[in-house]
């Protein structure tokens, strides 16, 4: 708070100056006392100055007894997963009541390194949504693949002192922490050096392994899957997040672990939410709503989504409706059935009404991070799958999850060992083509459970290194699809019989677009329908999201990186042939 | 946490290295979840490494199922009020379970300015008790008296960046805040500049005046007197402290305002506690005990005295029993009837047992702040009380409080107007003699309700400027008493018929001594008894504490400063004669 604002607020409270705005007759959700009180709220310079001051205001709004809740704080998200640029992400989530997000841009940093971090910082600077960033701690996610960049502690140090950078993003490298990997230790040391925060990521970690992880200074987790896991982590000092993303949904499973006694250490987050989910269900407010509809006290739920996050991340200028805080708030007709704001105010300005944005964030030139495609010598030949045996390893897709099973089977082969597609079996070819450094790397494997009858699907969203991943029954369509993505600088595309069915261009690092959320939602809907009806992809899976996780070598069991087929259970590469 | 400690803790948790100590079979008070769990606690390098790790430890203690609570954090105190040096204060409060205090050294700073702050910082540096300091915000407390120093924002800036200085101490200048006094605004701006904290002091302030005060960035208060006041302050974003001092006792009056819903914003503090109270009742644990005995859930009470304070002041390395936190903890046989620790550990070392200190803090040379007595031209003549009328204003003592009443009466006078003591009336002479700058200032007034029959009592503890204050029925004893204090460099003394009855030397700035708490408690007990039995002071009051508040011009109604008789209600000086 600068000097002038401090003095202005005092003047308004003391009745010596007019407020910019007064909201009359609101029922304030008091997150400090878990209660509600009726008052007027005087706003000046984008901040809350006082209640019932009796002073004047340049503008008045009669809230007619609506509830006033603090703006929601999404404690952990990856904006890239929405396919939207930060301004368009703001336009999408603000109408749903999210006024602050803590975003880890590790997707774009895996592609573009510090250029991506710089872009996310600048593109999110002057938009209604408050975006705080965590500097990604694990780029690349593993040493078993080629990402676009390697971010070291010394890179983090260039940015971590920025006041909008709250610390290091999710430390996924649990083995690196508990085995005291030198570079990981150097990153953790930034916490004390710059008085910052380190987010965790510790799925299923418990017992003394969890103690070691927490001892290192990491104190949040958004990967809990059971109430027992949540309870242990809270008891050991972690802030635990209830995540409700498009893919990962933990609110309902975790809710039985939340009670009035431990709730102060529990937050909400979205992690990854796509534009269609945001439009149809909501953003952070959807997780809060789910919790309320399943029995969590609405005031407590709102407190968890506001004050708790502000305490966890030391965002002391927000998270409550009280004097001296930012005037980021929601007006709500109802809180008993969910959190869908009638009006959203940010810094005292009305920015959305009826869950529609009224003040749009302006776009930002994605300049340096546009395209970023560096593929060397790609040809049909790179898609070759030639094995010395007809008994091979096969990646088994698990519908509804990102874990794969270890399958095996017998295949038809050409004389030279080249795989031949068998129309009677749901086994397709998967290929990953390195796209960052022009290494010319490409690898292939077989995959079961995708359901596609004929054609190819390719995408540059392939966690976490985001190389090109392509699936198909024939090399021609696969080649066309890959060439299309190279040509447009990234996106998602589908080919059949040499014909492009539809393409979603993701010009920002192959991950995001400058299109609006509505446009993206509609594009993805159409593409899903084409994938199901024209390509025959199984309706039990999401054709694009499932594909995008098949290259992620931190989630069991078989995954394919640009280097080859990887057995996550043994943490080693394996041959296709058995 | 430095690099080596982080790695050591991980090694212990992972069973790769021996712990320094394991406490087996403890029932940990889990302040995060408001519950209790039985475990072993492994300690390394003074920190908690893990629970039930199964690893080895160089030393074992079987706690036999005792409770383990985090060390208590006293959220606001003035060490000077104990008359003890910081090391002796540590020796006194640590056995009672206080392991961290947030101390505002405004008493010694009123006498010795930055020398006093430096002394408190250094004398509290290498002792078992963790002492964090707040830089005093209001020295002098008012412009109506001469203190030993004036501390400006630029002085604060020299110290506020120190990691043991958490911010600015209690901002008592409420009018200065809401009227935007330039110097006050400069001090408040340090909050953002150095990312620090500003403590409040807002007795009875409410409504929009409170909003203005809070808008300025102040977010604690330890002066609440009613549950309604507490509730309003919490709802508006303040952390409210339940204070249980030797003089001011707010735990029981405030307790009805505390419930499970607002408790996370409520802390405990002592403000001012004397050695006898600490020995007989306890330190911070006494307030916690009172709350428990009067119905507050013991786990919640412990949480308020630990985690809440650590959250409020961002002391993230303490306040709970969890991996990565300091091993500051108490072992307790019982929590249902109060908090009296069997054993106290600080940084993993046993420092007290059976409420007796076992590892004493070493003394610190008070060098520069010893003595500090600069009185010019003191003589019997300075005690003269000469008025042009026999109808005069009289300060009325209120037993049990520090507020005085405005009295008036008719007195006997000499021909030259000089007051003559009337043995039939309980009216005595009060004088304040400036002792810091050799101004030669002295002033006199009459006072009713002290009860003394014959003699004089003088002290250099006279809030907040700590000039010499003396009370008596005759100028000779008063003169002897003042001369004695000048001679020894400060303290408390009593004279009768020219004879010194007893003296308590306070060689550190006239406020503190290097004596132990036991010695001070015994000295004060003896002196109280002499004051009551030999001087006839009313047993309804504390002879020394009451006297020490008669010069404090921020508490109504009549007070005497070195400049003259002050009417706090009208904030102006008044004549003695009516």
Structure summary:
The structure is a homodimer of 578-residue chains. Chain A is α/β, with parallel strands linked by helices and 578 residues long.
Poorly predicted residue ranges of chain A: none
Roughly how many Å is the radius of gyration of chain A? 25 Å
Query: Multimeric state of these chains?
Result: homodimer
Category by helix and strand content of chain A: alpha/beta
Discrete helix count of chain A: 17
Helical content of chain A stands at: 25-40%
Give the N-terminus to C-terminus distance of chain A in angstroms: 65 Å
The interface involving the most residues is between: A-B, 59 and 61 residues
What general outline of chain A do the C-alpha atoms trace?
A: elongated
The tally of strands of chain A reads 30
Describe, in plain words, how this protein is organized in 3D.
The structure is a homodimer of 578-residue chains. With 578 residues, chain A is α/β, with parallel strands linked by helices. Chain A contains 17 helices and 30 strands. In chain A, strand 18 and strand 19 form a beta hairpin. Chain A is elongated, with a radius of gyration of 25 Å. Chain A starts with a helix and ends in a 5-residue tail after the last strand. The model of chain A has no long low-confidence stretch (mean pLDDT 96). The interface between A and B is large, with 59 and 61 residues.
């Amino acid at each position: 708070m600068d000097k002038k604002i401090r003095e202005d607020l005092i003047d308004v409270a003391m009745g010596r100056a007019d407020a910019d705005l007064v909201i009359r007759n609101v029922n304030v959700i008091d997150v400090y006392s878990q209660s509600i009180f009726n008052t007027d709220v005087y706003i000046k310079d984008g901040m809350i100055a006082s209640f019932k001051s009796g002073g004047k205001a340049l503008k008045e709004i009669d809230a007619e007894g609506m509830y006033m809740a603090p703006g929601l704080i999404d404690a952990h998200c990856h904006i890239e997963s929405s396919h939207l640029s930060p301004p368009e992400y703001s336009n999408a989530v603000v109408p749903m009541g999210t006024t602050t997000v803590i975003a880890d841009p590790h997707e774009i940093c895996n592609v573009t390194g510090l250029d991506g971090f710089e872009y996310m910082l600048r593109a999110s600077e002057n938009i209604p949504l408050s975006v705080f960033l965590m500097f990604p701690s694990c780029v690349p996610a593993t040493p078993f693949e080629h990402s676009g960049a390697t971010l070291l502690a010394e890179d983090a140090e260039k940015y971590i002192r920025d006041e909008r950078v709250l610390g290091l993003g999710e430390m996924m490298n649990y083995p690196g922490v508990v085995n005291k990997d030198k570079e990981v230790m150097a990153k953790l040391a930034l916490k004390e050096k710059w008085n910052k925060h380190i987010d965790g990521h510790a799925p299923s970690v418990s017992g003394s392994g969890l103690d070691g992880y927490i001892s290192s200074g990491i104190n949040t987790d958004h990967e809990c899957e059971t109430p027992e896991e949540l309870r242990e982590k809270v008891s050991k000092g972690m802030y635990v997040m209830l995540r409700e993303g498009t893919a990962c949904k933990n609110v309902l499973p975790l809710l039985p672990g939340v009670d009035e006694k431990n709730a102060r250490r529990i937050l909400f987050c979205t992690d990854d939410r796509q534009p269609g989910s945001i439009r149809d269900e909501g953003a952070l407010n959807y997780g809060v709503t789910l919790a309320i509809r399943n029995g969590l006290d609405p005031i407590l739920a709102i407190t968890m989504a506001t004050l708790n996050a502000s305490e966890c991340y030391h965002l002391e200028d927000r998270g409550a409706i009280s004097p001296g805080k930012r005037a980021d708030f929601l007006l709500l007709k109802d809180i008993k059935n969910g959190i869908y704001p009638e009006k959203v105010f940010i810094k005292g300005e009305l920015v959305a009404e009826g869950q529609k944005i009224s003040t749009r964030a302006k776009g930002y030139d994605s300049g340096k991070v546009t395209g970023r495609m560096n593929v060397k010598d790609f040809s049909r030949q790179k898609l070759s799958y030639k094995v010395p045996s007809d008994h091979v390893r096969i990646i088994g897709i698990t519908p509804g999850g990102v874990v794969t099973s270890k399958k095996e089977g017998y295949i038809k082969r050409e004389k030279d060992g080249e795989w031949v597609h068998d129309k009677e079996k749901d086994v397709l070819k998967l290929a990953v083509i390195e796209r960052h450094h022009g290494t010319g790397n490409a690898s292939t494997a077989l995959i079961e459970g995708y359901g596609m009858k004929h054609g190819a699907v390719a995408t540059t969203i392939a966690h976490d290194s985001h190389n090109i991943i392509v699936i198909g029954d024939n090399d021609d369509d696969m080649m066309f699809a890959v060439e299309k993505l190279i040509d447009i600088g990234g996106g998602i595309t589908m080919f059949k019989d040499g014909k492009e069915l539809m393409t979603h261009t993701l010009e920002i690092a192959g991950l995001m677009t400058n299109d609006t959320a509505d446009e993206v939602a509609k594009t993805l809907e159409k593409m899903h329908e084409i994938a199901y009806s024209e390509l025959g992809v199984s309706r039990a899976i999401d054709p694009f999201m499932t594909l995008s996780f098949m290259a992620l070598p931190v989630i069991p069991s078989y995954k394919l990186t640009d280097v080859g087929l990887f057995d996550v259970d043994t943490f080693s590469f394996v041959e296709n042939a058995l």
